[in-house]
Fold this sequence. Notes:
This protein is an alpha+beta fold.
Amino acid sequence: MLPKLxxxxxxxxxxxxxxxxxxxSVHSILNRSPANxxxxxxxxxxxxxMIHLKADLENYMAQYPKVKIVRAPERVGLIRARxxxxxxxxxxxxxxxxxxxxxxxxxxxxxxxxxARNSTIVVCPVIxxxxxxxxxxxxxxxxxxGGFDWNLQFNWxxxxxxxxxxxxxxxxxxxSPTMAGGLFSIDKEFFERxxxxxxxxxxxxxENLELSFKTWMCGxxxxxxxxxxxxxxxxxxxxxxxxxxxxxxQRNSVRLAEVWLDDYKKYYYERIGPIGEYGDVSSRKELxxxxxxKSFKWYLDTVFPELFIPGDSVAQGEIRxxxxxxxxxxxxxxxxxxxxxxxxxxxxxxxxxxxxxxxTGEIRRDDACLDYGGTDVILYTxxxxxxxxxxxxxxxxxxxxxxxxxKCLSISEDKEKLLMEECNTVNISQHWDMQNYNETxxxxxxxx
Length: 448
């Protein structure tokens, strides 16, 4: 640890947060941060209407000189609330935290130490779990880094082997392709040089990926620091209603794709169908040009080589049963794994009907693969070991054969269930079309 560390302004945004939860957050920051390093806590009220967050909060926080309350006159959303807080900050380092957290002893110093060594390093603590029912601090099962899928949704994944080799020690910071976005520290000047957040983003969503991409592509580094731990309540759903039309997260994500993803944006657009209106992004493209940022290909090759690229696949799009006009249709969320894969009338909108056939025979979306172990066709985490996850498509007889069981993918008489049957090329229920199939992309795969 360096002997001299910079001070930080901690910015906490809230809207109708529970009294005890908010006070727990504030007191854990005050009590577990060295006084000489904590310049101030800026509480940004995003137009709360609960009575305890009015005069009661003002009176309570008046006894703590380091706590300042900034109130937005109307609902502005998380992104603009953070920018409001940042505009009031006076310390050289900004630390953003959610309003339902608990900082642990020693959480702050490891974050500031990294920024003191290099102001272009953006750092995140390990995010532990606070139980949503008991509020107990539960800790974290394992150390992970951030990623994303081609729906432009953040996800966690294990630290790659090459990154563990680079780190050398379990206590060393890990390079992370992305951040979850709720808890991090960043040099204020570097944050401003990167253009803070896209002012065209509404409410919340995609801001974490935007900051992650431009940190890496524009000269910085993003790290998870294992010596810093902050507990966080993971809500099961958003408790807040918004009076706004349209899909805000998709609109934000399209703006992100237009500015930062280069030609790779097509893989996102293939998932979502029509992209809709997304506003003017010319100033954000100009920012990227002025900063002389690297390409998204550089980011994928250098920072996140583990990500499966749809362009490397043999087929992309829907998998249509020509007899029933049903398509393979399933979510691929974590709680959908190990469950039977579904069917739904083909709609041509991508989404849950968008699948990839990899060069090695996987039918996959992101990290979920179709897997057959003898009972149902289920979703299982892609493991790269072939076996039950290898499927052979024959474009001539339109069958999809499972390499291990030698059975073919079929559909029930009522057209509602995927089946595995003895292959019969005459049986029209076993006939499938794979969209955008390109046989020349196959990798040492024989159709048998």
